[in-house]
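step 4 of 6: structure.
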Amino acid sequence: MPTYTAPTKDLQFVLQDVLGVSSLDTPGYDELDADTTGAILEEAGKLAEGVLAPLNTVGDEQGCTLENGVVRVPDGFQEAYDQMREGGWMGLDADPEYGGQGMPVVMSMAVGEMFVSANMAFNMYQGLTHGAASAIHAHGTAEQKATYLPKMIDGTWSGTMNLTEPHCGTDLGLIRTKAEPQEDGTYKVSGSKIWISAGEHEMSDNIIHLVLAKIPGGPEGIKGISLFIVPKYIVNEDGSLGDRNAVTCGGLEKKMGIHGNATCVMNYDGATGYLIGDLHKGMRAMFTMMNDARLGVGLQGYAQAVVAYENALGFARDRLQGRDITGVKNPDGPADPIIVHPDVRRNLLMQKSFVEGARAFTLWGSTILDKVHREKDADADGLISLLTPVLKGFLTDKGFDTAVLAQQTLGGSGFTKEWGLEQFVRDARITMIYEGTNGVQSLDLVGRKLPANGGKPIMAFFDLVKTYCKENAEDPVLGKDFIEPLKAASKDLQEAGMYFMAEGMKNPNNALSGSYDFMHLFGHVCLGLMWCKMAKAAQARLDAGDTDTDFLNAKIATGKFYMARQLPETALHLARIKTGADTVMELDAANF
Amino acid sequence: MPTYTAPTKDLQFVLQDVLGVSSLDTPGYDELDADTTGAILEEAGKLAEGVLAPLNTVGDEQGCTLENGVVRVPDGFQEAYDQMREGGWMGLDADPEYGGQGMPVVMSMAVGEMFVSANMAFNMYQGLTHGAASAIHAHGTAEQKATYLPKMIDGTWSGTMNLTEPHCGTDLGLIRTKAEPQEDGTYKVSGSKIWISAGEHEMSDNIIHLVLAKIPGGPEGIKGISLFIVPKYIVNEDGSLGDRNAVTCGGLEKKMGIHGNATCVMNYDGATGYLIGDLHKGMRAMFTMMNDARLGVGLQGYAQAVVAYENALGFARDRLQGRDITGVKNPDGPADPIIVHPDVRRNLLMQKSFVEGARAFTLWGSTILDKVHREKDADADGLISLLTPVLKGFLTDKGFDTAVLAQQTLGGSGFTKEWGLEQFVRDARITMIYEGTNGVQSLDLVGRKLPANGGKPIMAFFDLVKTYCKENAEDPVLGKDFIEPLKAASKDLQEAGMYFMAEGMKNPNNALSGSYDFMHLFGHVCLGLMWCKMAKAAQARLDAGDTDTDFLNAKIATGKFYMARQLPETALHLARIKTGADTVMELDAANF
């Protein structure tokens, strides 16, 4: 059986030492002192370890079942759901006006990492609710907010997002679900949606579906899409539940992983829906939710890597096989633990340096998002918009790769269900696909985010890195091992950006053929920057006489590994980008 | 449902145009004229498409079950097994003296690719038999060969390899299974073996287990291991089956993939065994079998990528989503097929350039193995020994990655069981682990194969590449796009080798920390060489006026993609290697 130990100390290190959240001037951050964040992490960690993690294998083995329209979730999920709800965890960062706890996003992400590592399929039920509630909060009328938010935020009701149809996912302009206006101002929604996570279950009293649909006679394609609230049970004016709406679960998807989450075909058969946001502006409303959700999916990617790495590390310390080539390390045993072997260490350090870097990147991104939410800071908005596809695409690709590496550490045991590593791999796999495939993320990055606002956000990012390098170039710890590699990587990123500007103008395919490599190049620069910040924070504590030297020196050592061995990937990505579109576009589709 | 179309034309291209098998002077190769290889590929392809592929999903869904010691295989497996046996496919490359067809290895590998692509879990039943029969052929007495080989080669009996025990896999010196000598010259074998593929089933009348065990009082560790034949049913002197031996299946492993194959715990409880090969030289006998088996596992890795790519390509041509940014390509449809998008093409070309390169590499390696088997050529033996860990490690790592890429092409559909891509990913995953994890392959490469025979094999490989580059430097098609990148990559490989020589002498960890990167660097150089050979062969046919221009030009275009976009990975691997052991070894095991 796999184990999970909440990395509260590492999370606290990032929040307090690296990001210094309590000293940031973002409104509400003054409450995030070390005692408070420590206490919250501790409580959430206990829940993750004690309640959610033990249900992860159960969820995978049992999956969900559909009988007579009713979806049954795995054993123990209802009890865990109730416990999460009663603890107030579901509304951690929600608006206090509607019963939320009003914590910053950075705190809900730190807590979320632990919940997702412990049980990703379970956590999706509340994750989807969170997304749907965010959209209602941003785009709903005062009445809609009052009707739905309090019960969604406290988990009494849950929520879903309904975008995909059998013939379209990425290209939502093609959707066929229609919403016919009724005389009372409501709409009759009809159509079929697929891959609806948490689409149907009975853990909550009602499910609030957000559904993209077209109103007949509206504009063609993407410009004619509106967003509708379609509750499973109609909500009466007094807030009580009325009739069952004409929305049913038509089937459960059989899939590679996240078996504990009900992935539903949802059939809308003239269901009563309420327009949310402006007519024909459904995509905009959906994207509000999607951008935050993408950050959450990036988190899912690395959170699976976190728990996979923990188990790989435990195995590598216990498993006795072979001897250290430089001298026996475990003379009393029949062999040395495999962590003595350089190739095993290389593998473990790839895992460790990724998950810790990814954690810092995600929480840093969350602080930027908080500035947007709490200060309406335009620069922060530009920056997080730019970083979002990188957070989603890079962290999920590498999160999956890392789970695969962790599985490899266990050799044959990694392939067995007994050790649980293979579930982390299967569960992590979806994160590269949903909320926009990583290919789509890279197009968003290069096609939309790079040129956004005349390139101001990307220039701001370059400045940020440049300034950081300049300020720390002479630092005795950072200078050679950290700043120099970061400068080289950042130079690769700038050169790639310049290539896109020059060559993409001539032929857009020159940019699009390199978009995926650019996303990875960008991700490495971000993780490189994070490792500089982590090493600096660790050194500062050491310089101040902190006695937790093993922990702090490990941060610096792990950072050195990342800078020396992982960051040089940027040169490969740049080399690929500069080959342009020629070899990508040459072959006719018929001749593949 | 996934589909499979046997790539007989591509296989024939490699056999005849690239390798020119019928003109090689290896004994027996003169029979491999184009008509013969074409006819064999055609027949095997039909079997793969019509009989094995339809059972692949069945095998995954049903898996194997154990009841009262009897293992039931999935529906249809018995019938398919009988058909394979009756067609003589199981003994394709086996010794005619024992009923085999005596074909070269290169032919059985070409055929094997199709069988494995169609149904890897099924094909393992005969694959294990093949390995066990090879060991008996190489190390058995005349009597043992006469007793076991004819029925194993015709598939009436099957075989297994028993190495791993719960506490040891890589470090076989630790095994506890013991073999106690009896007065009649037999042994009583007792112990428990795990992860025994095809360990128990009733498709064959008998199962011949090859078991590593220690004779009490023998040398310690790896030097005290002997190999034993332990048949499920004792074979009487007249060849008929006698008593059931004391070997039973104690359980079936629950695992990530290859569900159609019975992965067994095998319990030996004083089972009658017969020593095969020399006393205490069991590892040598096992390695004979393992080296050939590793080539077969490399093939499994890329064969899963082949079928995954086929399905990704089909999807990319059919799925309509978005429009080509340079102009609508499918004006009559609601959107263009996704193969118009540069990032989808990039993904597909990564798949295509890998599977075709891997196929050529594997079949080229097989021709070298045939020289060893048929001519006892020492240089060929040195070369294939060197290449074996690369064939196994690189092709399975990249084969898995490629299956993941193919899954990504399908977006959400790739995550569903319905489309079958996720099974290819799960099945491919084991190839990176068994027959020695890929980490172990890299240690074998750097620790044993590089220094072997004073470095003669690696120097011979460098010469081979150098000569090839020199001979083709002025070729108008090859020169700039192929030879130059190959030279650069080969230079990286040489530099890495020199680094190991210089720095590995000072500290072996400097070499071992870079072994995995070296294995990948080496693999890329090999695939680069293969793409040069394929492009050259295609161009030669074009120059000769061949009218299959689309097929031939596609080879050249795909090769250009590989040389421009994939081969530059060598520089990254070299850069990593040259960072040495410092960052890998710095962190104390306790502080990870």
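step 5 of 6: annotate
 - The longest helix of chain B spans residues 282-318.
 - Chain B touches chain A through 96 residues (CB under 8 Å).
step 6 of 6: archive
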